[in-house]
Each structure stands twice: as C-alpha cells, then as structure tokens.
Amino acid sequence: MYLKNSLSALMGLWFLMTPWVFGFGDVTNALFTCALFGSLQFVSSMLALGKTGKHMWQNWVCVGCGVVFIVFPNVYHLSFMAFFSFVALGFMTILINYANLYPDSQ
C-alpha cells in the first residue's frame, strides 16, 4: 500500500507542476484547477499511506481527482503531449487507488 499511495502522491505533485511544464500557467482557471486537484491528490494519498479498504475516503478522493484529470485536457484544449500526460496519469491514478480500495482478499 505504501508504494501505491506514494506513486499516487507523486502523480499529484506532477499534476501540480504541469501548468508550468506545458506552458499554460497564464490560463488562470487551468492553473487553479491543477493546483487544487493536484494538491488534493497529494494530501489524500499521503493520508492514505498504508490503509486499504472500500471505506477509506482518501482513496475515493484520489479516484475523483483521476476522473477530473481525464476530463481536464478536453475542457482546456491542451497540446497533444499535455493531453496524453493528463489522460494516461489520470487513468493510472484511478487504477492505483482502485487497487487500494479493493485489495485481493485471501
């Protein structure tokens, strides 16, 4: 669980930095959306370190952030590389946190 949540936290930091990496830091709404949801994903992932189960709200918040980041490049019409980055890492965020919500039961 530590590795999955750490990866999710790193992706949250990446989403927080993307406005400057991809050059859309001057678009205020896009900047605030990345800052809000990237930091929300980072904090929620750090709070979820070592915790699993479908009742963990932190992992649900991260799943929601992943959904937002999949929709995000369609709303702001970003470049291809930004689009690919947001969609791919958004899906990875959902999959990683879904794996924490429903771990293998043995």
TrEMBL record:
Signal peptide bounds: none
Key words of the record: Membrane, Transmembrane, Transmembrane helix
Record has Aminoacyl-tRNA synthetase as a keyword: no
Domain named SPW repeat-containing integral membrane: residues: 5-96
Top-level taxon of origin: Bacteria
Segments passing through the bilayer: 7-24, 30-50, 57-76, 82-101
Keyword Transmembrane: yes
Protein's recorded name: SPW repeat-containing integral membrane domain-containing protein
Source organism per UniProt: Paenibacillus plantarum
